[in-house]
Amino acid sequence: MGAREEILARIGRAVAGADEVDVPRRYRTTQQVDDLVGLFAERVDDYRAIVHVLPASEVPGRIEESVAGRRMIVPDGFERDGGWGDLDTADGVITGCAVAVAETGTIVLDHGPGQGTRAQTLVPDYHLCVVRADQIVAGAPEAIARLDPSRPLTWISGPSATSDIELNRVEGVHGPRTLEVIIST
């Protein structure tokens, strides 16, 4: 018997015959946030992303300005005519999202229509994501409740970044170096 098994056997003997205890779980599943859009924009900005909060009527013009001169991947189902980049030649990708979390500034892709594949959202150096105000929830429990656990999920909290042992920040290691978010109100 190894050390692990010995420890587990001791624990088993110690609790043998003990009463079952019902441990109440009082997890917070909702929270009140007065300004979801404002909090989400603030948190996304904290991650060094570029953030625009615009009326829906101004979103197409902002998209055109943001992608001007870039070869972009436009996934099937995104509400924009035509894509003109592929994984080998694209400068960036433009997507929607499944849900966004105000508390953490996190965008969640489930790679449904208009969200592209994981490769399309992780390989290019630039990601432009359009988030509708009605897709923003206060916290992670609410976001999880909206998601289908059988779909592939990508959780994005700012541009890709990592730090080495000396805490030198390096961006673009595991995904796009630049994240631009348009919040459509």
TrEMBL record:
LUD domain sequence ranges: 87-183
InterPro entries tied to this protein: FTHF_cligase-like_sf, LUD_dom, NagB/RpiA_transferase-like
Highest taxon above the source species: Bacteria
A Pfam family it matches: LUD_dom
Name of this protein: Lactate utilization protein C
